[in-house]
Amino acid sequence: MWHRKTLQIEPFLDEEVEALLSAASRSHYAKRDEAILWLLLDTGMRASELCAITMADLDMTARCCKIQEGKGGKSRTVWLGSTAAKAIWNYLKSEPHEPHEPLFFNKLT
Cα(41)–Cα(45) distance, rounded to whole angstroms? Predict the structure, then answer.
């Protein structure tokens, strides 16, 4: 009989999260990078899903975001915790966006 091996994803340790956030805070685009990290950590979304988010997908009043899943193109809603929402607000205050634009710009230095 064939048994499918179940892969279990291990969560980040507190020290690993602190190291990621410390690196982001030293980045040239610290507010953007901190918002990206908190959004990924808070929601568990895939990086490809994060890259596809536009401002129109984001609802900061309800603290949620509509994302397109890579598999099958279905959409789902993810909810933002207070830390992720605050990080996104801080980013958007420093980098205003139009509704049709991506939430996170790729800026080359």
Answer: 8
Q: Which two tokens stand for residue 34?
A: 């901190």
Residuewise pLDDT in 10s, the chain (109 residues): 555 666 777 888 999 999 999 999 999 999 999 999 999 999 989 888 999 999 999 999 999 999 987 667 788 999 999 999 999 999 999 888 888 899 998 765 4
CA separation, residue 96 to residues 55, 68, 109 (Å): 10, 23, 19
Which option is the CATH number for 25-94: 3.90.79.10, 3.40.50.360, 1.10.443.10, 3.40.50.2300? 1.10.443.10
Answer left, alpha or beta for residue 49, where phi above 0 means left and psi between -120 and 50 means alpha. Answer: alpha
Q: Strand 58-59 relative to strand 64-68: parallel, antiparallel, unpaired?
A: antiparallel
Q: Provide the sign of the torsion angle of the four alpha carbons 83, 26, 91, 56, taken in this order.
A: negative
